[in-house]
Structure to design on (122 residues):
């Protein structure tokens, strides 16, 4: 004779597994979405920091500091404390007759993206 309690516990186990699979199927996309949103927020923050630094340095360069650099492309070292919040990357200054350009390029993709500012010299 077959024990009915055994069948009931088997059905209960199957129901539990199906419910658990449904919960995982629903929560997994949410977890991925939150992780993607976090990466996007960090990249936006890093881009904003880079823009602030580049804008401030361009004001200084446009005011006459560009004269300290010969024509050509140079690594540019910033003194801003906020640069510690940036991912690894480099600032590059390009001095051409009548124009100066400051560019920040992160070493890795999806870390804020490049920021470039250019000023026409008078």
């Amino acid at each position: 004779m077959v024990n009915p309690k055994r069948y009931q516990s088997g059905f209960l186990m199957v129901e539990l597994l199906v419910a658990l699979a449904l919960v995982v199927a629903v929560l997994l996309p949410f977890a991925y979405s939150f992780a993607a949103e976090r990466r996007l927020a960090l990249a936006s923050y890093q881009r904003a920091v880079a823009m602030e630094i580049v804008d401030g340095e361009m004001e200084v360069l446009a005011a006459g500091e560009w004269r300290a650099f010969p024509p050509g492309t140079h690594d540019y070292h910033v003194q801003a404390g906020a640069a510690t919040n940036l991912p690894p990357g480099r600032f590059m200054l390009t001095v051409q007759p009548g124009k100066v350009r400051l560019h920040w390029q992160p070493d890795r993709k999806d870390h804020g993206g490049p920021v470039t500012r250019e000023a026409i010299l008078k």
User: Anything to note?
Assistant: The chain has a mean pLDDT of 90. The radius of gyration is 28 Å. The chain is about 50% helix and 20% strand.
